C-alpha cells in the first residue's frame, strides 16, 4: 500500500506534536515544517519543534518569515511593545494575540513545499478550542484553504489541507497524545517565551497567559499528569525570579 505523504505544520506546541504522532500512527510519511515569524516565544517554540521532529525522526524545515512577521504588527505575538494578556484562552482580551492571516500564510507556504517535494497534503493541528478567537482556525476556513491550495497546485500535486483535530478540543488532544505516548515534555505552549532561557535554565512556562491556562486545563480535564514546569506567580501576576 502506498503511504500518504503529509507535511505537518509543527509549531513545537502540544497540538501539532500530537498531530505528528497521530499521522505517524496512521502510517503517513511525515515531513515537518515550522515557521519563524518573529513570534516572541520563537526561541523556546522552535527549539521544541526541532526537538519533537528529532524525537519522531522527521525531516524538518524551519522557514524564516521574520521579515514578513515584522510587518504584521498590532499583535502581542509579533509586537514587543504589546504585553501578552493573562487570563483564560477564550477571553476577549486574547484577541490581541491574533496575527493577521497567519494560518493562511503558513498553510499556503507549506502547500508549496508539499507540491515541490511530492507530498499530497498539509496537516494542521487547529482545534475546536481555537475557534472563538482565531478565524483562521475554523472548519470553514480549512475547507476554503484546502480548495485554494488544491486549485493553486492543480496538476502540480493537487495538494489538500486537512485538520484532523478541528472538531476536537484540547482535552481530547491530550488524551490522544497520552494514548500515543506523545512527548509532551518536549513541547512548548507559552506565548511569553521564557525569560530564564538566556540563563540556561530548563524550559518553564509562565502559567498565566491564555495558552498556559488552556494547557493546564486540558491536562486536568483529561486526567493526564502534567509534567510542565510553571513559574510561581506573585499576587500581581508577575513571574517570580
Ligand atoms: Zn504562558
- Percent range for β-strand residues: 5-15%
> Which ligands, by name, code or SMILES, are bound?
zinc ion
- The SS-based structural class is alpha/beta
Gap between N and C termini, in Å?
54 Å
Main sheet strand line-up: 3-2-1-4-5
**Helix coverage percent:** 25-40%
The total beta strand count reads: 5
Global Rg:
17 Å
Keywords:
alpha/beta; binds zinc ion; single chain; 5-stranded parallel sheet; globular
Q: How would you briefly describe this protein structure?
A:
This protein has 241 residues and is α/β, with parallel strands linked by helices. Helices cover 35% and strands 10% of the residues. The protein has helices at residues 14-25, 42-56, 66-69, 102-117, 139-152, 170-179, 210-222; strands at residues 5-9, 29-36, 59-64, 121-123, 160-162.
What can you see in these coordinates?
By secondary structure, this protein is of the alpha/beta class. It contains seven helices and five strands; from the N terminus they run βαβαβααβαβαα. It has a five-stranded parallel sheet with strand order 3-2-1-4-5, sandwiched between helices. The site of zinc ion has 9 residues, from helix 7.
Secondary structure topology:
Elements: E1 5-9, H1 14-25, E2 29-36, H2 42-56, E3 59-64, H3 66-69, H4 102-117, E4 121-123, H5 139-152, E5 160-162, H6 170-179, H7 210-222
Parallel strand pairs: 1-2, 1-4, 2-3, 4-5
Zinc ion binds next to α7.
Amino acid at each position: 500500500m502506498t503511504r500518504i505523504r503529509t507535511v505537518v505544520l509543527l509549531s513545537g506546541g502540544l497540538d501539532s506534536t500530537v498531530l505528528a504522532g497521530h499521522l505517524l500512527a496512521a502510517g503517513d510519511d511525515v515531513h515537518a515544517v515550522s515557521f519563524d515569524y518573529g513570534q516572541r516565544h520563537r526561541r523556546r517554540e522552535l527549539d521544541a519543534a526541532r526537538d519533537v521532529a528529532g524525537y519522531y525522526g522527521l525531516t524538518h524545515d524551519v522557514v524564516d518569515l521574520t521579515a514578513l512577521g515584522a510587518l504584521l504588527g498590532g499583535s502581542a505575538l509579533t509586537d514587543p511593545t504589546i504585553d501578552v494578556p493573562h487570563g483564560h484562552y477564550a477571553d476577549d482580551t486574547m484577541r490581541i494575540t491574533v496575527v493577521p492571516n497567519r494560518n493562511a500564510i503558513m498553510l499556503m507556504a507549506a502547500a508549496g513545499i508539499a507540491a515541490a517535494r511530492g507530498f499530497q497534503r498539509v496537516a494542521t493541528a487547529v482545534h475546536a478550542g481555537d475557534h472563538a478567537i482565531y478565524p483562521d482556525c475554523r472548519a470553514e476556513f480549512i475547507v476554503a484553504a484546502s480548495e485554494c491550495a488544491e486549485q493553486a497546485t492543480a496538476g502540480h500535486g493537487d495538494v489538500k489541507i486537512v485538520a484532523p483535530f478541528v472538531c476536537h478540543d484540547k482535552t481530547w488532544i491530550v488524551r490522544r497524545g497520552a494514548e500515543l505516548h506523545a512527548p509532551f515534555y518536549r513541547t512548548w505552549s507559552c506565548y511569553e517565551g521564557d525569560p530564564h532561557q538566556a540563563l540556561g535554565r530548563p524550559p518553564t512556562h509562565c502559567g498565566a497567559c491564555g495558552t498556559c491556562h488552556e494547557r493546564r486545563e486540558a491536562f486536568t480535564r483529561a486526567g493526564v499528569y502534567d509534567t510542565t514546569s510553571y513559574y510561581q506567580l506573585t499576587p500581581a501576576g508577575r513571574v517570580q525570579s
